Amino acid sequence: MSAQGTGPATVPDTAEAAADPIAAGRGRGPLLRMIRLARPRGSRFALGVLLGGAATGSGVALLGVSAWLLAMAAQHPPITALSVAIVATRALGVTRGLTRYLERLVTHDAAFRTLADVRVRVYERLARTEPIRRFRSGDLVSRLVNDTEATQDLLIRGLTPPLVAVVAGGAAAAVCTALLVPGGALLAAGLLLAGLAVPLAAAALGRGPGRRQAEARGALSTSLVDALHGAPDLIAYGAMDRAVRRVEEADAELTRVARRDAGLLGFGAGATALITGLTVWGSLFLGVTAVQGGTLGPVPFAVLVLTTLAAFEIVAPLPAVAARLGAMRAAGERLFGVLDTPPLVHEPDERRTLPDPLPDELRIRGLEVCYGPDEPWALRGVDIDVRPGEKVAVLGPSGAGKSTLAAVLFRFRDPDRGTVELGGADITDYPRDEVRRAVGGVPQDPHVFTSTLRENLRLARPEAGDGELWAALRRARLADDVEAMPEGLDTEVGVHGARLSGGMRQRLALARALLAAPRVLVLDEPTAHLDPDTRDAVVADLLDAAEGCSTLLITHDLAGLDRVDRVYVLAEGRVLQQGSPAELAARDGWYRDALNPAG
Question: Per the UniProt record, which residue ranges are transmembrane (predicted)?
């Protein structure tokens, strides 16, 4: 059934939220939502925390045992008294390296798999076209690459080290407390300051720079892509210098923010070093006092001091991670800004397939579309019929709603009210790609990829052979031009098809559409940006190539309309007139006025 209301739903239902961690996390902070993405691999991260705790604990224990061994050796005991410590030192050295390797292996594997899942979700979301139309291309690339990879950064550096610090730091403080209670308390206080207070301060100071860094990176990417893609026009109008200055200003801003970020990292490292030094000196003072008082022996004293020094290895990474939390949070907001873009096309719960042969009759009844609650209706109660084999034109001025109609037929958005039936079946009851098997065509601005003619054609049917490609080119009246090219189908078309004329790009898009063999062919403004002579030839070729298909020609131009069976005049989202070209030419109204502009 068709969607009802004034726009797509923005809140997921209970079933969707339960199945999708992204949908379930809406309303929470971006960092928590990024961590929730790793829930399917929670056991791997838990294992990584245990291995990390073992590696860090082995490093602390290695220095503690070494201190015991050196202090005992200074008393010249029998070698047998040192054998256990010697073996333990070797074992701890091996354990430290092995568990660190395993921890890196497990956590990185889990993080990379999670990142792969996130990338797939982003690609799937982009495939629905709504984010592509909402964000500028350069900014979208930055969100797709840098902001998506922030998930990996958070899981590896922001999730595992704090949990490892809790496990290993607690164990180190317990050992020092067993040796000397004041020394253990001092170590616990030092670890809390270095592992909690300093990171919190770094996180607070890094919130603003982190957000500005994500925004500056997106601005740089946007200005750079705009300058590269618009280079011909910028040069033609003498605006390239201004575009380059914008790129340089964006780069300078990103550099300034990066310097502030480096300053925060220096603050965290310096504060940690200061706290480490003060804690070690405090342990020395307490230990010396205890040795002089007879409550602590020389050997435990050495173990206490060196264990205290080694324990700060546990919290050393935390300030740097905390300083990056602002950037990670901003990256998460930008990432979920893409993933949370409400879909304009909703897939049905049941996957159905269209009957074979594919239907070729289109029936539109009461179609209404609105782009937002405060926006006017783009389409209001539109009724259109395209019978099997017919050529029907939808004509109207700019802003009439023609492109919105094409977007509905191409399944780029759902109707808000009304129905679009294909062979008697509502298209919203079928998956998008299933409908596109029967309804295809040429959008208003067809994209020509920076590749060869062959690869551009094979987008429609990857398994197509050269014979089928040439047949499609002949139907689109492009075969003669391609044959005249030295490399034929292997000709490179340039960036966005820059090496082809406007008419050739339209014909190439039509050949691609014909290769997909749709039953209903939709041609959306096929003569846009073409000169009058080219426009007439392209329309004639398109209509000739469409023989055998039910065709809907959406246009603002009257060229070639004498060859269609029926014309619908659309204005302000409503159908004002309908009938054959001859009937409308004889009837007062918009069509007759457009046909005879001089009166």
Answer: 45-71, 77-95, 163-181, 187-205, 264-287, 299-321
